[in-house]
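Batch 3, record 17
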Amino acid sequence: MSYIAKPKVSHPSVPRNELGLFKRDYEGVVSTLCAGCGHDSVTAAIIQAVFELGIEPHKLCKMSGIGCSSKTPAYFLSQSHGFNSVHGRMPSVTTGANAANSDLTYIGVSGDGDSLSIGMGQFAHVIRRNLDMCYIMENNGVYGLTKGQYSATADVGTTAKKGPANKQMPIDPVSIAIGLGATYIARGFSGAKEQLVPLIKGAIMHKGFALLDVISPCVTFNDHEGSTKSYAHTREHFHQVINADFVPPSEEIVAAYEEGNTMPIRLHDGSKIVFRRVDKDYDPTSRAAAFTFLRDSVNAGEIITGLLYIDEETGDMHDLSGSIETPLSKIPYEELNPGAEELANLMDRYR
Amino acid sequence: MSRVNDVVIKVATVNGTGSASANGLLMKSIFRMGIPVVGKNFFPSNIQGLPTWYEVRVTADGHQARADRIDIMVAMNAQTYAKDMAEVVSGGWLIYDSTWPRNKLLNRQDITVLGIPLSGMCNERFDGVRARILMKNIAYVGALAALLEIDLDVIKTLLEQTFASKQHMVASNLEAIMLGYDYAREHFDCPLPPHLEPMDKTKGHIIVDGNTAAGLGCVYAGATVGAWYPITPSTSVMDAYKAFCKQYRMDEETGGKKFCIIQAEDEMAAIGIVLGATWNGARAFTPTSGPGISLMSEFIGFAYYAELPAVIFDVQRTGPSTGMPTRTQQCDLLSCAYASHGDTRHVLLFPANPEECFYMTVNAFDLADRLQTPVMILSDIDIGMNDWMCPDLKWDENYKPDRGKVLNAEQVESMEKFYRYLDVDGDGIPYRTLPGEHPKGAFFTRGSGHNKYGAYTEDSDEYQDVVDRLLVKWETARKIVPEPEIKYSKFNKTAIVSLGSCDGAVKEALALLKEQNIGLNYCRVKAFPIGDAVRDFIDKHDQVYVVEQNRDAQLRSLLMLDAGIPQTKLEPILHYDGMPLNASFVVGRVLTDVAKGRAA
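Prediction for the assembled complex:
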């Protein structure tokens, strides 16, 4: 991981966001990933999305586990606190962080190796808690840092650079998330930034657990012919089927959407996700429909992308457990301590 | 053999038959008569149907350990009858349920056997299988009340308080008490030679278990996030925290909770949740037992290196592996002290009783925040789950939590640049910032190699600089962890060093040895790292017995490793059969050595 800082100088004509910050203010140190790595495109999309949302950098936390994907939080938002934890356990750390302070924005970056093997349990349970976070899974089908072993998302029949084709069934994070009750489920492609940025914005603004599975090819170990996670294969089978735009609260929906073919969904803060549907019958608020659609696409060999499912009704972890609104870490100690008199009274219970 | 307020009663029952409430009633009645009492529960890792025992030691002298003898056995379990009968001291008593004929082949001429038709009487008086089983147990309490002269009014008041909302329960329980009581009065010479007389020695005291006290300590320390995965014998720490939070931590206006309890998917997640919460400024804790420590180890090492506070309770049970989950040991000292791969060492606290569980819990949160490192409280099943008589817990209103070196937004603003791991004060403790406070305070928390500025590094000097500074912090820890308890008798060159729940038995042993003109000095270690006071104490002695409850002399190892004490000076006295230590075990070992001319 590099710690080379980028220069912060910006030309006066460069656009600022509503906080008066430049995009540069949302960047991190220079990436040390391989040239052409899909993860760097995801990093760029995160920077773009957070810049456009106008989130104060220090009000956001960057969480990760172990692996190439988990290194990337160093490459964006250097004015945000980051927590690079242990393998597969970013979800638990984020759970604790959010438990302590629900006022901050949490972006977790993980990979298929980090999330779906050792991290499978934590991935499943953070969904069950509906933790308010944006969970980006940079999915390339291999372990990059240990030089190209298959991961749990490797498709049947995909080949490594050397050796036989994979025979084990892959774990599809999107199918898993639908089954476990995730409340915002999307898939993107690192090579399609226009689609990716609004998906990230929606995932950040969604109150509850948002999964964004991003096909992000590994140029060094999994971008060859025969791989089903290569740029070429993804481009060929990529279907941008359920398009969604993110509209902040301050803006009216003015885009020329075709009547009857759009569906706006209001998020908790007043912003909206507007679905532009390719298939008129698709209902992004139906978990059953999303699951059927997804499995049909897998059988057809398609990589469908877009916002597949959203549920703005289910409360997040704090709603479910009935926490007070004030972040727990901000409650003064005096309010937490019952005091000497209460303790003296309590003693009678134990006589 | 007429003894007053010095008797040991053991009740053998089948678990899941309600005997716990009967035994609780027995113990609390004695306590309310003003007589010091020790209760030890020996239960199986099972919900229903296996043998379970409860030992009540009535001790006018206020000893805290179990005794080495059973005066009165209440043998309610046919399955263990032979073993239970064998355990009674010569001249003692055995009470059994005479509804059914007992095995005449099993008999002892040196004890008195008292048969009471407990089941028969209860079957006649109560309806329903469940009620009959429960009341049979209450009835033996009634019989003991007659045989020992336990005040019936005390029992009655207790029942009224226990079943305040269920009046019919008061009546039926009292009826069962009287069945046993009247039968005993009618058929035996009451009271027995060992009996009870009211005292005033329990005033200002409570009876409480260590896990309840620890859970209460978490509330008083201001902990707001508790994460856990259920494991015996630590579960009741979280049960207590939850109950106290419901009592003290609900927002009056909104009904919102000023706490967040997360039942994690496993111990690895539980400690991850704790670290996320403390990183973000909350006080957070997790209760577990040995297997949980094994699972948490990787994250504990992370917290050591990334320097995050955490409070971890290890209510120890016997190992290795699953071991005997409901039996006690002090077997996790080494695995906690050096948990995780790489060079790590962790602050440990060793409470000796529930009272210390409360105060040390509060102290643990202060130490964790001050030192920015995990602090583990090593209690055990004996302290955690048994009821102990303790002085009333008191709260000092002047207490202010020590949140350690946390910079606020203003302080960060006034700095030119903030660096996470600089040793500004020379005590090895760097300053930290919390997320959400100030953009200049941002840093990247990582378990990978980092330099003192908080940046990633693979540079040898930069790496070593940080791990060496952590040793400076370790020396700071050594100065601020709790001091040992030291007691000099008639000063000589031999001493006992011990820890935790051994305390009661060791102190009783010291008194017994003194009666034989063997005066040993005593040092109870309360924390790791080993403070200078412990080292100085050991330095003054030629020979030191290290009394602990594990096979491998783990405290002795810590004394050697961390305080540089020569192995030859430390003579282990090891008790590790899963039962709490008693005084005679220690006395026996010391006397054996004396006979060999090696001690005192």
